[in-house]
Automatic annotation (TrEMBL):
InterPro entries in UniProt: CDPK_Ser/Thr_kinases (IPR050205), Kinase-like_dom_sf (IPR011009), Prot_kinase_dom (IPR000719), Ser/Thr_kinase_AS (IPR008271)
Record lineage: Eukaryota, Viridiplantae, Streptophyta, Embryophyta, Tracheophyta
SUPFAM superfamilies noted in UniProt: Protein kinase-like (PK-like) (SSF56112)
Nucleotide-binding as UniProt keyword: yes
PANTHER family on file: SERINE/THREONINE-PROTEIN KINASE
GO molecular function, one term: ATP binding
Coiled coil ranges: none
Organism: Ceratopteris richardii
Keywords: ATP-binding, Kinase, Nucleotide-binding, Serine/threonine-protein kinase, Transferase
Protein name in the entry: Protein kinase domain-containing protein
Described function: CIPK serine-threonine protein kinases interact with CBL proteins. Binding of a CBL protein to the regulatory NAF domain of CIPK protein lead to the activation of the kinase in a calcium-dependent manner.
Domain Protein kinase, first and last residues per copy: 1-262
Similarity-based family: Belongs to the protein kinase superfamily. CAMK Ser/Thr protein kinase family. SNF1 subfamily.
Length: 283
């Protein structure tokens, strides 16, 4: 179940200037008409605190949207969260069409670092997509925040989970095949995001959702000359290693962070490079 949100013009717990945002929810829309305050709090912890280390109650990584507090009053439950005013990665790709390798590497490095934290804490996100990568501000060099842990699951070392999760274009083949899985599905989705950032199109897509799912399972990855002829071999190599259908051979976060393309390019220029291509849609 996903929480239902009610927009409010202001939050009584935040005074300007602030670097936090307040999201207010109506309790009976979250867990049913007979919801008690305790039920609501438990539900919110389930959906919004997965990214925090429950063993010590902290969330030190700046690349993950943090829930700072949950405040209740007579009519609402208020979530005090990081404020991200720069929109999401989907909107930026739609507007700019594709990124330079340098800027794409910066974003991918930050995403991989956030995933490394999550995976190290025993959390698999399960719904990585550009819509869930937020920017703190509107600048080209804005830091990113990984958001929306509503489908995330906890796991212990060596444990695998199951169940359908993810979004069209970004879901891993093993999920579609009904197999058990672990953190490798996040690496697949991150690889799709990298492909989209560099080319403006998803690597596997057809006219229908079923056709797209079939293409993902077949895993025939192509690099059309426009625009891939102008993209480095190292970038294509990283994409191939992240979008590897063989789960055992797919890169981990640590391996991807040490890839030459990430190491060399993530410290370079930040300007986006316009390119006319696929007109994306949110799914």
């Amino acid at each position: 179940m996903s929480p239902h949100y009610l927009s409010r013009p202001s939050c009584p717990f935040l005074l300007p200037p602030t670097y936090l945002r307040c999201m207010s929810l109506v309790p009976n829309l979250v867990v049913g008409n007979s919801a008690s305050s305790a039920d609501v709090r438990a539900f919110l912890l389930e959906h919004f605190l997965r990214q925090c280390n429950r063993r010590n109650g902290t969330c030190a990584d700046p690349g993950v949207v943090r829930l700072h507090d949950v405040v209740e009053d007579s009519g609402f439950v208020h979530l005090i969260m990081d404020l991200c005013e720069g929109g999401d990665l989907f909107d930026r790709i739609t507007r700019q069409n594709r990124y330079t390798e340098a800027r794409a590497a910066c974003i991918m490095r930050s995403l991989l670092e956030a995933l490394q934290l999550c995976h190290g804490m025993g959390i698999v996100h399960r719904d990585l997509k550009p819509e869930n990568i937020l920017f703190l501000d509107s600048s080209d060099a804005s830091p990113i925040k990984l958001a929306d842990f509503g489908l995330a699951l906890e796991f212990t070392q060596g444990q695998q989970v199951s169940g359908m999760a993810g979004s069209t274009f970004y879901v891993a083949p093993e999920v579609l095949q009904g197999l058990s899985y672990s953190t490798e599905i996040d690496m697949w989705s991150a690889g799709v995001i990298l492909y989209v950032m560099l080319s403006g199109t998803p690597p596997f897509w057809e006219a229908t959702e079923d056709g797209t799912f079939k293409a993902i399972q077949q895993g025939n990855l192509n690099f059309p000359p426009d625009p891939w002829a102008g993209i480095s071999h190292y970038a294509k190599d990283l994409v191939l290693r992240m979008l590897c259908s063989d789960v055992e051979s797919r890169l981990t976060t640590a391996q991807a962070l040490n890839h030459p393309w990430i190491v060399k390019n993530s410290k370079r220029g930040l300007r986006a490079q316009p390119h006319r291509t696929w007109s994306g849609k949110r799914l």
